[in-house]
Amino acid sequence: MKRAYLLVLLILAFLLTRHYGESWDELQLYKYAGHSLAAYFSWPRTGTIPFTGDLFENYGPAFVMFSALVADALAPLGLWPAVDIHHLLYFLTFLLGVWAFHQLCKRWMTDLATLGATLLFASQPLLWGHAFINPKDTTLLAMMLLSVYLGLKMHASLFGPFAGSRFDALTSAWAASAKPARRWLVAASLLWLASLLILFGGTPLLHAWLDSSVRAAASGEPSIISRFASDIHKVAPEIYIQKFFVAFLQARAVFFWTSTLALLLLFWRKLPSIFRVLGIILPAAIALGLTSSIRIFGPLAGILVTQHAIRNTGKKSLPILAIYAIISILVMYATWPYLWSDPIGHLIETATIMSHHPWTGLVLFNGVEYQSTQLPAAYMPTLLAIQLTEPVWVLASLGLAVAALKSRKTREGRDLLALALVWFILPLVTFVILRPTMYDNFRQAFFILPMVFVLAGIAFDQVRRPLVQVILILAMLAPGVVGIVRLHPYEYAYYNSFAGGAFRKFEMDYWGTSYREIALELNRIAPPNADVWVEGPAHLIETYARPDLRIYSYYEPARAEHYDYVVTLSRDNLDLTIYPDAPIIFSVTRDGAALAVIKKP
What we know:
By secondary structure, the protein is mainly α. It has helices at residues 4-16, 26-46, 62-74, 82-105, 111-122, 125-133, 137-159, 166-176, 179-201, 203-218, 225-228, 237-270, 274-292, 300-313, 318-334, 343-355, 379-387, 391-406, 411-434, 450-461, 466-487, 515-525, 538-542, 574-577; strands spanning 362-365, 368-371, 531-534, 550-552, 565-569, 584-590, 593-599. The protein is 61% helix and 6% strand.
């Protein structure tokens, strides 16, 4: 019964998924997933990774690779198109995050308050709409929740009052082992770690050395390369550069697996009790690695777990955290091919680009268009206030006050307040002060939201009478449920009543998902072989349009002399400026806001 709401949400997912249109970036992300998957075959054989050089490689591909593999496997069955399979996977991942959120809430509140907080979180129209169409931001949110939950569970399993002395048993076994054995284990571990840092982190330096050495040998200069390539004067240097580099990659892989297995075998013989601890660390570390391989913000989950462990356990937790970090980094590296050639350099590049994203479009905020790099300080606070349902901030403020009072008396209160500080308050202050590049409202910052709803649950928990608590929870859920029903399937364009009318003041259907409904209407009304001009993401129309319709856009080299129909979004007021005198014959509207239109020139 306690998990019945998850079953209801799962049923809704299967019923509603096919209502949602493809979003603007998805096609590029599918291509990026294909390039990343291809890298697993090309890198060991050729030492190259088939990337296109756009900015998508700075997003971790772990989730989109998984989604692509599942969609490619299921789409040929003909039950659903690939795009709808992707959308279902996005939402199922969101449900995994909802479950992890529920498990986290149980640490600080009663079952009924936990249920209320979870339903309030899951019924936000903004998150609900994104959960079906967004493979980046809501996926990061869900995986961060899972990572934090598993990380806190890892700590409790090793150090908590009901841990069964697992960590103490390990330290006792370590103390009981002979000094030579301990020295062997420490030396072998440090040597293994240092070798990985050198071999993987130094890959760009090795490639640069090979390049210069091969070219020097080819020009007749004395070089060690000449001993291994007697015919180097007969072929292009690039051939030998690639040949030697691939040999290095293959040797490195053999060394990694051999040295790792040897290290594990050494521990198995000298300290077998560590494997019981590794079994506890592994789920949390894998989750953190995958989360980090979705967006560069993913390591925040590890920071949250680390601060919790150090505050509650001190230096005693450092060995566990070191193992946790190492495994996470290995998982991130293994699932992010763009990092393979230069892990450190590409991570720094990614962090730089994600903090100052070179997006050149304009952002509509409160009726004014701003450069994405020059947003006002009020940008994030305003959107947080108007895109979540009205009760959220009242409840969260009350919950924060209660948590502050509890922090003076209980460790649980201090844990809650510390998580709220590191997970929400500090990131929000950073966004307000530094004002990094943002667009499409604040979707890039969804990952900071969970603690807002945890604090709302704390407010629910202060009501002691179950019946009153139930009535309060239902009342607080009502605005979100009404918003979902009213806006479906464009819930992500939600603004609450505080916005005072958002159309042409704030961004609406900025990902163009309404083009699915537009395409279906064109399929119904357009004569055979009609010429259609599409302003913006024409591929969103092509996904759903009849095969005979001829779709034109700026991306198409050919032009028609006359268009039977013109399709535009209302974003950037395109519905007003493109063919301004042509009558509108069909509009996709919600709450009086036109999201997209069909015009008849």
